[in-house]
TrEMBL record:
Superkingdom per UniProt: Bacteria
Residue ranges of the region described as Disordered: 1-21
Single GO cellular component term: cytoplasm
Record-annotated Aminotransferase class I/classII large domain positions: 44-386
Protein name according to UniProt: Aminotransferase class I and II
Cofactor: pyridoxal 5'-phosphate
Coiled-coil segments: none
Molecular function per GO: kynurenine-oxoglutarate transaminase activity; pyridoxal phosphate binding
Keywords: Aminotransferase, Pyridoxal phosphate, Transferase
Family indicated by similarity: Belongs to the class-I pyridoxal-phosphate-dependent aminotransferase family.
Amino acid sequence: MLPSLAGSRPGTGQVPGPARLSAKASTFTESVIRDMTRLAVAHDAVNLAQGFPDFSCPVELKDAAKAAIDADVNQYAITWGAPAFRAAIAAKVAGAYPGWTVDPDTEICVTCGATEAMIATMLGLVDPGEEVIFFEPFYENYGPDAILSGATPRLVKLRAPDWSFDEAELRAAFTDRTRAIVINTPHNPTGKMFGRAELDLIAELCQRYDALVVTDEIYEHIQYLGPGGHIPPATVPGLEDRTVTVNALSKTYAVTGWRVGWTIAPAALTEGIRKTHDFLTVGAAAPLQAAGIAAMGLPAAYYAELAESYQARRDLLCAALADVGFGVSRPDGAYYVMCDTRALDPAGDDVAFARHLVADIGVACVPGSSFFADPADGRHIIRFAFPKREATLLEAAARLRTLS
Ligand SMILES: Cc1ncc(COP(=O)(O)O)c(C=O)c1O
């Protein structure tokens, strides 16, 4: 029996009558992460649950968004993205990764965030019953994405402490029904960065089974391995013509509420994504796409400073969590830290412990079970997010110190 990827809490199930949900919607729950944010607000807690910044976005983006609204950029953009924004995305990719050439006319689809990019990709390219491989722990959206597209998930475990996977387990996960493997690098929640050898193995298997890679690179510039640390799968030999790259303005430019993302994929795949996207949302906000052009034009120094400032936040929070007694898994990328709670919560009830933290200590985090198909695998884990001002992280640290 293949695992369900529906998340840690059972859905409400189907009830008869007009209040009946679809069979698909009955199998998953509302997001635990966004639920924790609601609890954080209710308890006036420091929100280290959901991954959104509490600092400003670059002024260049604000100015460009305001100018676009003043210029009456108010109507639908072209469904798959304003041409100038698509050209800017292609130019930025070519600058960041020499040799990776993207045709903005045929290989990009602008979406409402990475979230829509992922579901449009799954619905546009995967048929019900086909298998999609996910690494576990996984970002919680991928479960409902798989269910909604009718895909059958196959899970491959990332193992602490280095979050590597077992080659034999990955090989065994590929079958004649495999349509795609989903990669997220840098990885939420573990901070893993997929390395060259791992991607070469994935390339070998995808070619053998004629499978796609769908890669979520929303944290591409938030990584601590230095220049060259992030390897986009689309640049790996053998994957160029079978990779869908998902990305967004959300994290790199601190605008998670703008809902602007995109896919990059060969023209034949982009056609399926564009059609699906058209009927899901028509398009992303037109004036914010104009601001996206300003984002793509930011200098290399912006990205260097971004990584440096996130590294300082990571180091501050990891040290504070270790002081309190958590077992800390220092991330190589993204802006989350997974903690082993055994010393502080021997009972191993991650949901109860997270609720205690938010209600009694005043810090919100995410229970580890949200990232596993079997909730038991996450019961000694919680995840903190650190896209926050230093003052916010220091306040969280001070509150957490009352735990020990
Ligand atoms: C791995 C990953 N992908 C996608 C998203 C959502 O991206 P967006 O806000 O652009 O839809 C998140 C947000 O936390 C994420 O962690």
